[in-house]
Specification:
Largest interface: A-B, 21 and 24 residues
Structural class of chain A: mainly beta
Largest sheet of chain B: 6 strands, mixed
Helix content of chain B: under 10%
Strand content of chain B: over 45%
Radius of gyration of chain B: 13 Å
Order of helices and strands of chain A: EEEEEEEEEEE
Strand order of the largest sheet of chain B: 2-10-9-4-5-6
Number of helices of chain B: 0
Radius of gyration of chain A: 14 Å
Number of strands of chain B: 10
Largest sheet of chain A: 7 strands, mixed
Number of helices of chain A: 0
Order of helices and strands of chain B: EEEEEEEEEE
Shape of chain B: globular
Strand content of chain A: over 45%
Oligomer: heterodimer
Helix content of chain A: under 10%
Number of strands of chain A: 11
Structural class of chain B: mainly beta
């Protein structure tokens, strides 16, 4: 069964740091781009960060650029989100999600998937408060 | 960035009725539009991608249409488990933005 699941959510003070991890199983992790999407309490979904299958390219929303960093370890089937200089408005459930279509043999180095997501974790709650 | 606007914010309908949800993009996103369903306390689940292609395992009562800037999600006959929140997302241009959501509630 294909699964992803998050860990590392916590209560942290404004200005602090936190690292979220997402583990994967049941599929060839190294072939799939991954993303983090967050949802503030009672609010809608907001894309945060994405990373392609081999980690060569990463993308971040303007609101988190320079503070958050996404990375992956394909040997451990994990993707991480390092969050620094946290603010109250970063409070949210953070979801790890996988794109539907992975890289296929013969795809060029510049290949990227269509960035919609068919596999989601249950989320990790990050609360930024003093 | 592409702004996705969903309307209405809330829809009150009766079980068995047909319902149409709207999603509008501030600029063309071609057919690069996905719909998600989110139940309370759960992660979103993919319903539709490519504006009109149902995801694996999604019942035929869900259908999507549109291209460019105007999109719709239609549920042909609402079942009890369909009274939840629906989001659209464009993946044509970064950042890959979501709409604000439409909550479908029981009338």
């Amino acid at each position: 069964e294909e699964q992803v699941w998050e860990s590392g959510g916590d209560l942290v003070q404004p200005g602090g740091s936190l690292r979220l991890s997402c583990a994967a199983s049941g599929f060839t992790f190294s072939a799939y781009a991954m993303t983090w999407v967050r949802q503030a309490p009672g609010k809608g979904l907001e894309w945060v960060s994405s990373i392609i299958d081999n980690g060569a390219r990463t993308y971040h929303a303007d609101r988190v650029k320079g503070r958050f960093s996404i990375s992956r370890d394909n040997s451990r089937n994990t993707v991480s989100l390092q969050m620094n200089r946290l603010r109250a408005d970063d409070t949210a459930v953070y979801y790890c999600a996988r794109v539907q279509n992975g890289r296929q043999p013969g795809d060029p180095p510049s290949w990227e998937p269509y960035w919609f997501f068919n596999l989601w974790g249950r989320g990790a709650l990050v609360t930024v408060s003093s | 960035e592409v702004v996705m606007t969903q309307s209405p914010a809330t829809l009150s309908v009766s079980p068995g009725e047909r319902v149409t949800l709207s999603c509008r993009a501030s600029q063309s996103v071609r057919s690069h539009l996905a719909w998600y369903q989110q139940r309370p306390g759960q992660a979103p689940g993919l319903l539709i991608h490519g504006a009109s292609t149902r995801a694996a395992g999604i019942p035929a009562r869900f259908s999507g249409s549109g291209s460019g800037t105007e999109f719709t999600l239609t549920i042909s006959s609402l079942q009890s488990e369909d009274f939840v929140v629906y989001y659209c997302q464009q993946y044509d241009d970064r950042p890959h933005t979501f709409g604000g959501g439409t909550k479908v509630e029981i009338k």
